[in-house]
Amino acid sequence: MISLAAYFLLMIGIGVYAWRKSTESSEGYILGGRDLSPSVTALSAGASDMSGWLLLGLPGALFVSGLSQSWIGIGLTLGALLNWIIVAPRLREQTEFYDNSLTIPGFLGNRFPSNARLLRMVSAVIIVVFFAVYTASGLVGGGKLFASAFGGDYMTGVLLTLGIVLVYTVIGGFLAVSLTDFVQGIIMMLALIIMPIVILTTGQGNGVGQAVDRLTAIDADFFSMAKGMTLLGWISAMAWGLGYFGQPHIIVRFMAIRSVRDVPTARNIGMGWMVISLLGAVGVGVFGRAYAERNGMTVSDPETIFIILSDLLFHPLVTGFLYAALLAAIMSTVSSQLLVSSSSLTEDIYHTLLKRGASERELVNVGRLTVLGVGLVSAVIAANPEAKVLGLVANAWAGFGAAFGPLVVLALTWKRMTGAGAVAGLIVGAVTVGLWIWLGLNQSLLGGEGLYEIVPGFVASWIAIVLVSLATPDRGEYRARPSA
Question: Does domain 2-391 have CATH number 1.10.8.870?
Answer without folding.
Answer: no
